[in-house]
Amino acid sequence: MHKKLLTRLVSGAVVVAVTAGSALLVSSVANAAPPAGTLGFNTITPAEGTDSTAMSSTTSGPCPTEAKAADLQITGPVGADPTVATFPPDNPFQVTTLNSISFSTEGSFTQQLNPVLLDAAQSRGKTIQVGEYDLTTRCLDRFGFTVLGTFTAGIVFDTPTHYTAIPNGSPSPTPTVTVVPSPTPTVTVVPSPTPTVTVVPSPTPTVTVVPSPTPGPGAIVTTTHLSVLHIPLPFGLGGFVIPIAYVAPINAVGTVQFKDESTNLGRPVPVIGGSAFGGFFLLPARSHSLIAEFIPADPTTQQPSSSNTVTFTFRRGG
Fold it and tell me: Which of 58, 98, 216, 271 is deepest in the core (most CB within 10 A)?
């Protein structure tokens, strides 16, 4: 199956490479986000809870008949600086749905958040921040490249541990600020020849360090292998690359992040049937070192893994 897929990709990529002028637009078009709410809404259960609540999301209807999978992406806080946000738009908390129990083209379906938000944040070395979070179910094609429609919902954390779901179709709630006037101080004058001053030291704050979750004793070991098709362009314009990751075991559930050294190539893509296709990327004329990192959906049942490094050079013109 992998060889057939790679053959089809190679033939398509060669056509793209010949028309270099138009090929420069491929990456931006392929990554264009669809409009939110194209199919309906998600209902969050329970509607109120904490960052450790076992939360689920139920769509208001089915995915289109041509959909073959669905995922649930959580981003937020909305409007926060992406470098410090708990789940920034370019690296959302993602739950992939492939089985018939939690994915349907005939009726509504429910997706269980696993792990809970607290564990998902701690696995990134972050904490839940106060603000609004978007939960978007995306109906995907067979390879996970095309979004066929979405269901949307939102929750608001008014504290770092407590959330409330936003009712379907309602705007984000406006926080209510209550001003409590300070009480008028009472002054009592006690005559004393010598005032006595007692200094009470402030208590030393207690810092509790919560370690990041580690794979459980039964977590399955995974392996990731990276193959890269690289197509140079003329006149020292760099070239195209098509990275494909193969994750074992074949039923591994999670996403793959492709990287050129320490730079992310696009967003994490879902693993479907043991494979993850990174898409087309235009890289400049220089040496490159590509890797693929598998991120399990549930780190307590499957372990993360990194691939082999693929190095190559797009030579400069002259």
Answer: 271
